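Review form for a predicted model. The reviewer records the input and the model, then writes brief findings.
Reviewer: anonymous (R2)
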Amino acid sequence: MDATTPGPLAPEVLDREDLRAALIEHDFAAVFALVKKWGGLSQNRIASACQLTPGKVSTIISGSQRVTSFEVVCRIADGLRIPGVLLGLASRPWESQQTQQQRPPESPGGQSDTTDVPWRPDATVGLAADLTRSDLVMDRRAMTRALAGAAVTGAALLDSLEGWLQPAAAGAAPPRRGRLGMREIHELETTAKAFRQWDHQYGGGLRRKAVLGQLSEIASALDEHQAPTVETRLYRIMAQLAGTAATMAWDSGLHRRAQEYYRLALRSAHAGADKVFGANVLAGMARQMLYRDRPDDALQLIQLAQEGARDVIGPRVRAMLHTREAWAYAAQGRTAGFERATARAAEALAAAGPGEEEPYWIAYFDDAELAGVTGGRLLDLARQNPRQHADRAATEIRSALSSRGPEAGRSHALDRIGLAECYFLVGDITGAVEETHRAVAAARLTQSGRVRGQLGQLYPYTVGHSASRTVREARDSIRDLLSS
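Model under review:
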C-alpha cells in the first residue's frame, strides 16, 4: 500500500446512516464528501484509490457529473474497501480475504461457525444456543463487522453439507426427560408459522430478535431432552425458525450470519427427520448463492436437495426446486437449460391438485409465483439481450401481478421493480416511469433490504434523462425512499 492509497474505512465511518443512505442510492457526490469529512481522505487520495483523476472526483463532488458506469462503481467499492452489500453489489473478491484475516465476531459462550460441528442432534442444539446468544447481544460495532462478513462458497460450503445425506445419529438415552406436551408444541408451531408469514410478507429484520429469542427457547427445551415424539417436533420447529432467521438476516445484509442460520436449519431438519424442509433450506441457500453471483454453487446445492429428498417431496416443492435450477442455468447463460428446467417446474406444479397434502410453507408456490420467478429470470437474460427476452419477461411478470397484489408484500414489490426495468430495457420510458412510481409505492410497504437493493439497481436507468421532467420525478421518488 502506497502513501496515496487509503486502507479500509473505519467501522464507525461505514456505520454512519448518512453514508449508508448515499451508498444505497449511488449518490457518490455525498459519498465522497462524507469520506473526506469523516474518513480523513483527501480528494487526491480518493482519486488514486478509485483510479479516477482528481478532476473527475471534483466534478462528482460538485454534482456536475454522476457515476453511472457499473465498472466505476466497482472501482470505488474496491478502492475505498466498501463492502459490496452496501452498494447493492455481490461480495467483492477482497472481502473473503479480509474476513479470513480478521477474527470472527465475538461469540459469548461458544463457537458459532458451523463448519466443523458434527451432525449430531446434541451438537445442533449447542450450535443453536451459541448462534442465538451471540446475535442477541450484538452491538453496533459487531453488527458492522457482521455486515462485512462474506458468505462461504465453493468446496468449503458444499463439503460441510454432506452430512445431510447421512442418517441422523442417535443420541444417548437421557437420565430424565423434560415436561413439554403437545399443547405447548402446537403453540410453538403456530408461533413459527406467524414469524414465517411476517417475513414473507414484509421482509426486513424488524422481528429478527423475537425469532432469535424463540429459537433460543427451543434450544433450551431440547437441551432438557423431551419425549421422543415431542423432541422430533421441536427439531422441526427449530428448523423452521432458523430458516426464518436466515432470511431475516439476509434481508438485513448479514450474509455470513444468514448462511450460519441456513446451516442450522438444515441440521435441525436432519435431526427432526424432515427431509422435505431440508430440501427447502438448501433451496434457500442456493438462492443466496445466486444473489451472490455463484450459480455453480447454487446448482450443486439444488442437486444436493434433489438427491436427499427425491422420494419424499411433493409437486410444489419439486416445482420450486426446478425454478431454482432454472435460475442457475439463466445465470450461467445456458438458455436451453433454463427453458428445460422451467418447463419441468410448470409440469410439476400442474400435478399439484387441490387434495395434495404438502407443508404449509410451500403453499405460496402457485401459478403466480411461478410466473413471477420465470419473469425475473427472463429479466436476467434480458439484461444481456433485451430484444430476445424483455417482452416475454414483462408478460410473465404482468401475469404474476394480475394474480397477487400488495398483500404479497416483498414479492409484489419485486414484481413491480422488475416490470419497470423491462420497460426501460425496451425503451418505453412512459411505461417505465409509471411503473417506477408503482414500484416505489410497493417498496414503501416493506422493510426488505432486498427490495431496496433492487430498487437501487433501477436508479441508474433514470440517469441520462435529465431533460425529462417525468424521469426526474421518478428518480427523485427512488432517492427519497432509499434515503429515508
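Findings: Residues 1-6, 99-112 have pLDDT under 50 and may be disordered.
Further findings: The first helix runs from residue 11 to 14.
Recommendation: see findings above.
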